[in-house]
């Protein structure tokens, strides 16, 4: 199975900051990567698919980049509602796998 | 709008069985593959199983292969997960999730989840 390693595992930041989360795949997955946001006690929510395509309804401050093995989720200006845990997920091959998550907390 | 509503979770003893259901609405259920994804308490997300739109192709995580069975009833717009020989490590919130384009293996809608606790 393809392993996804996210970094950092957690970060403390402030409203208005620019935040970047990285996801590294154990082998090349082209652009077959999605990003999800999960708030405590809530369902995961799709943000990005195909590494850089923004899901409908997701604010434009979220963006994704990368291909092959290295990917980045960027939040251009963090808003109060963005404090959550973020997961990357590869869909290049079975089984689909998730990264371990990055918890974004208020400083 | 798309709605996925899971049910059937609960507390069960190790070695026993449980059947989860996921009622779908707001889209043409019979056109899309469907997944189950789980999340152990305080842990990350783990894909469990996938079923093609027509019910003919099924895929399982190694951790549940031979113990769990996914199925669907397109006439009832319902997805199922039969879980047998349950273990403590199966304790998790179980989400059903819609495949975005039928069998693309990423998830555009998720249910609210149903909690399964395996404990003696």
Could you describe the 3D structure shown?
- The complex is a heterodimer of chains A (107) and B (120).
- By secondary structure, chain A is an all-beta fold.
- Chain A is built from no helices and eleven strands.
- Chain A starts with a strand and ends with a strand.
- Chain B has strands at 3-7, 10-12, 18-25, 34-39, 45-51, 58-60, 68-73, 78-83, 92-99, 107-110, 114-118.
- In chain B, strands 2, 4, 5, 6, 9, 10 and 11 form a seven-stranded mixed sheet that branches. Chain B has a four-stranded antiparallel sheet with strand order 1-3-8-7, with no helix packed on it.
- In chain B, a hairpin with a 5-residue loop joins strand 4 (34-39) and strand 5 (45-51).
Draw up the topology in text.
The complex is a heterodimer of chains A (107) and B (120).
Chain A: E1 4-7, E2 10-13, E3 19-25, E4 33-38, E5 45-49, E6 53-54, E7 62-67, E8 70-75, E9 85-90, E10 97-98, E11 102-106
Parallel strand pairs in A: 2-11
Antiparallel strand pairs in A: 1-3, 3-8, 4-5, 4-9, 5-6, 7-8, 9-10, 9-11
Chain B: E1 3-7, E2 10-12, E3 18-25, E4 34-39, E5 45-51, E6 58-60, E7 68-73, E8 78-83, E9 92-99, E10 107-110, E11 114-118
Parallel strand pairs in B: 2-11
Antiparallel strand pairs in B: 1-3, 3-8, 4-5, 4-9, 5-6, 7-8, 9-10, 9-11
Please describe the structure with a list of short key phrases separated by commas or semicolons.
heterodimer; A: 107 residues; mainly beta; seven-stranded mixed sheet; four-stranded antiparallel sheet; B: 120 residues; 11 strands; 0% helix; 51% strand; globular
